[in-house]
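Table S5 (text form). Sequence records supplied for joint modeling of the two-component complex.
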Amino acid sequence: MSPVDQSFTALPLHRLADAALQRARDFGVSHADFRLERLRGQRLGLRDAELEGVHDTDEVGFGVRVILDGTWGFASGVDLTAQEVVRVTEEAVRVAQVSAAISPVAVELVGEAVHADATWVSAYDVNPLDVPVAEKAETLTDWSRRVLAHEVVQHVSASLSQVVENKFYADLAGTVTTQQRVRLAPELTIHGIDRSGSRFDSMTTLAPPVGRGYEYVTGGYDWDTELAELPDLLGQKLAAPTVEPGTYDLVVDPTNLWLTIHESIGHATELDRALGYEANYAGTSFATYDKLGSLRYGSEHLNITGDRTVEHGLSTIGYDDDGVVGQQWTIVDRGTLVGYQVDRSMAALKQMERSNGCAYADSPRHVPVQRMANVSLQPDPDGPSTAGLIGDVDNGIYVVGDKSWSIDMQRFNFQFTGQRFYAIRGGELAGQLRDVAYQATTTDFWGSMSAVGGPQTWRLGGTFSCGKAQPGQSAPVSHGCPSAVFRGVRILNTATESGR
Amino acid sequence: MANPALPELVDRGLAASTADGCVIIVDHETTANLRWANNTLTTNGSGRGTVVTAISTVDSSAGTAAASLTRTVTGLEALGALVSDADAAACEASPAPDANPLVTGDADPGWDELPEVTGIGVFEAFSPALGDAMGRARGSGRVLYGFVEHTCTSTYLGTSTGLRRRHVQPGGHVSITAKDESLTRSAWVGQSTRDFADVDASALDAELDRRLGWAERSVSLEPGRYDTVLPPAAVADLMIYAYWTAGARAAHEGQTVFGRPGGGTRIGEQLSTKPVTLSSDPASPGLESAPFVIARSSTAKQSVFDNGSPVGATDWIERGTLTNLLQTRHSAQLTGHDVTPVVDNLKVFVDDATGSTEDLLAGIERGLLLTCLWYIREVDPQTLLLTGLTRDGVYLVEHGEITGAVNNFRFNESPIDLLGRFSHAGSSVPSFSREWGDYFLRTATPALRVPDFNMSSVSQAH
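The corresponding structure-token record, covering 962 residues in total, follows.
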């Protein structure tokens, strides 16, 4: 395990935490926590192999959260002095007092084990922020030039986002944690037009964002093959026939399916949503608490886990922002809803024995809320390859890569597009199709899942920026899944939908 | 920073730089918020902080390179380190394609004034009124969910070429969702505000009550094309996305609805036969925004070299014709058009259109009135086909009257297409986008009636 960055541990973490917790104790709070964070990021953007911009960010600050007479209070600051920490703690108490008039329901937290002075660092080899910008720009320039050399590619954009996240947490119960997470997202998109000159389209690399270091760029992914194949694949897409709308069997590749899991299972099984806490913004869930243990979410092939421990997962942590240790648990067992993602306050609301560690704040300026674990679909231990799944489909479509996504506020009705859609005829791929979108209702879709691939098809996808809460917060999260077969799914022709 | 001397921070940062050019942007932000659900508070917060962006530029025979760093800064030592790191990064950088001379000028009047601030006290009148509304809701079998936020950002921008510009941006919003006890009827109201003085919690609560009343009769409808009135909030939901898509560089490269496949923008082309205008103006009353460019990094739609240059009133689509796109000086040079930077507000209006949303219902034989749209995503960039959902109130209109509520729908529509298809429009009024309002506060839009709005499928969501 790499050590926590010394520039973070050199900050007066414990001294400031003591100042906050002592001042909070003076007001008789039932809970107080102090969280100090440093978030360093860098984004390189290139357009047509020229560096469009490099932007470095470095946010340092702290937040104090209290429960006073059953009401939350939260305040944040940036000046790392004991005097300012005390002022911000008093402000958190004042926020709780102002809020008391609209807080008839007392907040409680489920009890959790104390973790005194625990340290955790995510799995990575090379801190990407230690790599010279020139070296990173050279790699992205090389990638861009390679694809630009192909006649179908008119333009190319490339980017590399990197984050190093340090969190220090201390609460009145005695938990003290210090953590470091590293993640990065390389991406390249090519643009071209068809032979008639009347239609343009684009295609983006399938490489997912990961909780890894710069070794992901230099050898942790087969960039050479993907970059070599991408222009021809775009050329095929531009020349492809438009899809006939109707009902098809789908084989969905994990490069696309991770996002469908994220939207239709990940968000739907957040207990705060199911209890209405996001009703004014992100929405609620059809998977309400009264259905726990009985809701048929999908077919018997549907086995879903919540996970904050998988190596290189973007939501993987040692301890969450309630001080709870990272865990793995079951959400859907053979098609039946059996669990939720919760934080300490949500767990207490439903008299659960403990939290499964899903509290997260994306910034020291923001209050922790319940956020998504790495919610993943398990493979069939003896399942076939993707080609084997395709071989079992007579008239269908194979879906690769994520693109457009949208789902309603109770997570029923969704519509997704992809990077590539291939016709399947008689168990064989029969060329690309264009203008394809699939649309379904969550339980119908997962109920139609007739087979999942084996462990050899399982892959971790994900995003840097899952949005939730007000003020808006952005969280990184991964989802693992195998390829899977879905029967009788509605396919739209997007050109027809737009009235062309 | 206990007593921030923010103009001095700009001057000291510029003085510390050894690069050929430098821009310092100091943002001092204060913010407060309350959030509630199930008739009780859920989270809240109050905060303040100062972040500084240092942009250094270095000239060479190959061109001018730039580096941009943004950090939390709490003292002069941290400021010095930031500027030094930006200078060093610029020395290592390759020439910037968007390089242009830094903007010159003098100090704005009021440059030396202190930052303006907000805090949790801004809700001192709203909070008890909300408490009363919650009490009424509990007594009448309704459930309230909502959020209020107020932020004040004071920005001080200086360049090594003498420019000193200051802008204070207050902004806030309130949005409330109400449901009946069965959670099957749902209504929503939202409002943008500069200072919360114009937010009336009781009036918002009464409007929610009225809308839940409209939903006492429930009707199921199939997907299809409906004669549909989009209120100003729903028009803002769609037109903000169109505005964000209007980057000149992407259009010039033939990658958006505003460009031609193969290259070239559609500026000068008639997109709609209707006298509809999309425009922005930083001085627009009630929608005031920064009158100069604030760019902390370079992208296709903004350039760090343009920092401090004036932002003016701009028509993007004038009476149906595409007239301007979001330009940097660099993209203007590429495309041969005027420099028309991004403005942080958007107005949509139709010549001679008058009346309210409810006035537009008058001529409808059988159709729909929407509340707002949600989860809007791009399906096809060539037509700007967007998909999304109706949310928190789709009302059946029969013979000009609201006669009940219907199920939600997924739509597939292009906002550019809609500009050519609407049959009636109302007056342009201040609006708040449900989908994007948390990030784009300042809009004025009309209600639009579209005779054939494409509801692609039914959503079971309540």
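Note: Chain A has a mean pLDDT of 97.
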